[in-house]
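=== Discrete structure encoding ===
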Amino acid sequence: MNGLDPSSLCLVNSFSSSYFCVKFKLPAKDETRKPSPFKYGGKVIKSEAAVSPITSSSSRNNKDPYLHTLSRRRGLLFTATIPFLVGISESLDVNAAVTYQTLLEGLKKVVTKQKSAGLLRLVFHDAGTFDKSDNSGGMNGSIVYELDRPENAGLKKPVKVLEKAKSELDERDQVSWADMIAIAGAEAVSVCGGPVIPVQLGRVDSKVPDPEGKLPEESLDAFGLKQCFLGKGFSAQELVALSGAHTLGSKGFGNPVAFDNTYFKILLEKPWLSSAGMSNMVGLPSDRALPEDDECLRWIKIYADDQNTFFEDFKSAYTKLVNSGASWKTIRKS
């Protein structure tokens, strides 16, 4: 074949990777005409200028039959493609993008620097129940059923903060607790000067609490922490990056409302070894265990020296965390 056969026009569906051809029989006459409107999904689809001939300085007075025919064929292709494209747009759940904007706007009203540490802890305690071995737990909103557990003490306050925003959003569009918590944590990081973390929406809430005893214990040493996080699908590097969230709050790692790399700098100083009384109150036992492990210490030094690297690695680890164990809404089919 020397060139494209214009009587056979093919369309490729990039969403399903399927390929099909639509053959058109072109009218012999050369006059311009508009295609008739047609109905699709209860809508009347019109193509106004799609089949108007190409007009140029060289063809206004003497129409080139080839250009005229090509223009009409393009119009036919456009007309034939409209129902295909409309079908694609209707098959996607476009509410996700709308919900993201309205959800973010709602959260900005309630997420403040002073509340950020609690909101970020809420994320870790909801997603931290994930168990890779049986794909149980994870980011599923079950934390709202688990607030009376000893390890979740103090989390009723951040849930109450989100409850107000969620009730207003639910009047327009139902938002899952899992999505609400995941985005609230990302916004908490951002409002305190940390990286902006895009969060995918569409998580489905669990109807029951997750099994108990799935969260990492605060008393674990570095080896125990690495084994625990490995069981959730996280490396030692991701463990250290996520631990950097402890820079927020009153654990003694610098400004309690600033998300930065001070946490790692203080870990290297090891103030808890000082004879001063209050220095032993810096961080959790699990925090103080990290610099005692050579693999973790390597990442602590990297993040203490380069805040941008910490931010990028935290973004990646946070995204992985809030997607762990999540069940997702299915795409609506037309």
Summary: Residues 8-91 form one domain. The chain has two domains: 8-91, 95-328. The chain has a mean pLDDT of 78.
